[in-house]
Amino acid sequence: MASDTTIKILLVDDRPDNLMSMEIVLENQGYQFYKATSGKDALKILLKEEDFSLILLDVRMPIMDGYETAELIYQREKLRLVPIIFITGQDYEEAAMFKGYQAGAVDYIRKPFNPQILRSKVAVFAELHRKNQLLSRQEEKLRVINEDLMRLNADLENRVKERTSQLELLNSELKDLNLSKDKFLSVISHDLRNPATALIATSEKLNRDVGKLAPGDIKNLSSIIHRTAHKIVQQLNELVDWAKKQRDKTSFSPEKIHLLEGMNDSLELLKVNAAQKEIELINDVAEEIYVYADSLMLRSIVQNLVTNAIKYTPQHGVITISASQVDRMVEICVADTGIGMNADTMQKIFDEVNSSSKGTNNEYGTGLGLILVKDFVTQHEGIIGVDSKEGTGTCFKFTIPAFVLEEVNS
Fold first, then answer.
1. Using CB atoms within 10 A as the burial measure, which of 175, 303, 355, 379 is most buried?
2. Within a 10 A sphere around the Cβ of 86, how many other Cβ atoms?
3. Which fold has domain 252-409?
C-alpha cells in the first residue's frame, strides 16, 4: 500500500551478527531500523523514540531475557499496542510458547530463520501499522468535521446536510477498516498457526529420530516439511493480498470450487496435528458437488472448525466432513467423536467470546475463531449451527451457495 508512513522496527539481540543478519534480510523494504544488544538498551531506545511498527526480540539474552523485556515494554501505556515477535533458538515447547504469548508476543520465529518467512511476517505487520495510521488520520478528520458542524448555524442547512453525508461516509470507512484489521489478525492466528505447528512437530521428529529412521522415512518427513513450508509462504501471500482487497472492499471473491478437492486442500495442513492424537480425518464429500465461494474464506471456515474438533476430540477419535446439496445451497457438516458441549454453551458459542469451555489436555477455547467463521458464512448468505451432546461428539453445519451456472452468468 502506498504510504508516506515510516515503518520503524526495533531489533533486539545480544549478538551483533544476528542483528546484522535480520537487517540484511529486511533491507530495501523502506524500513527504518533501531538496534539494541540487550533488554536494557531496548528500553532506553523506547524511552526516546515512539511509533514503532514492530519489535523483533531475542528470547535468550543475559541479565534480562526476552520475556522480562517484553513485560517491561508493555508496562508503558504508549507501547502496549506495539506487536512483538520473539526470535528463539529453542524448540517450540508448549510451556515456553504460553509464557511468550502471556508476555505479549504475537508470534515466534525460530533460529536459523527462513528469510522469506521473516520478510513476509514483517510485511504483514508493516501493512497493519499503515492501516492503524490511516485510522488515526480518519479520526482526526472526524474531529475537525464535528467542530465545523458545531460552528454552523441554522441558516446553513444545505451545508449541514453535506457535512453530515461526509460524516456517514467517514464512519463507514472507519468501521470497515476496524473490521478489516480484526479479521486479518484472526485469520493470521488461525490459518498460519496450524501449518506452523505441523512444521514444528515434523521437524522435531526428524531431529529426534534421525538415527533410527530408514532413508525412505527421512525422505517422507523432509517432503512434509518442504511442502508445509511452501504452504505457509503461499498462505502468507494470500493473506497479504486479502488484506489489500479489504482496503479496496473487494475481499469477497467467490469462484467455482470443486468441494472434494477444496476439502482435501483444507485438511492437508491439519493431518500432522491430527496424527499427534491418532485422530482419523475423513473427507466424505461427494465427487459431483461444486460450490460458489471465496476460496480463502472457505478454507478458513473449514480449518477453524476442524482445528477445534481436533482440540476437543480424545485420542483415536474420528473427524468426518460430509456435504449434501439442498436446492441452491450446499450444507457442509464437520462432525467429531469428541467431548461435546452442553446446551448453554451451544446457545452462546457464536455470539460472544467464550472462555469457559474446557477441552482435553486442559485446553481452553476463546471463541474468536467461531465468530470469524460465522461472519464468513454470513457473507456467503449462508447459515451456521451446531448439534452436540456431552460425551458423544459435535457436528457443526453451515451452508454456502452451490455453483449454478445461470446464476453466476446473470
1. 303
2. 26
3. Heat Shock Protein 90 (3.30.565)
Of 228, 395, 403, 198, nearest in space to 298 by CA: 403
Residue-range domain boundaries for the chain? 7-113, 118-246, 252-409
Dist CA 74 CA 271 (whole Å): 37
Q: What is the pLDDT of residues 124-139, one digit of tens each?
A: 888 888 888 888 888 8
Average pLDDT, the chain: 81
- Find out whether 303 and 322 touch, Cβ atoms under 8 Å: no
What's residue 56's pLDDT?
93
Return the CATH number of the domain spanning residue range 7-113.
Answer: 3.40.50.2300
Q: Is the peptide bond before 112 cis (omega within 30 degrees of 0)?
A: yes
Q: Which three cell numbers stand for residue 323?
A: 456435504
The pLDDT, as a whole number, for residue 251 is 63
Which residue, among 73, 53, 191, 217, has the nearest Cα to 124 in the 3D structure? Answer: 53
**Contact present, 394 and 338 (Cβ < 8 Å):** yes
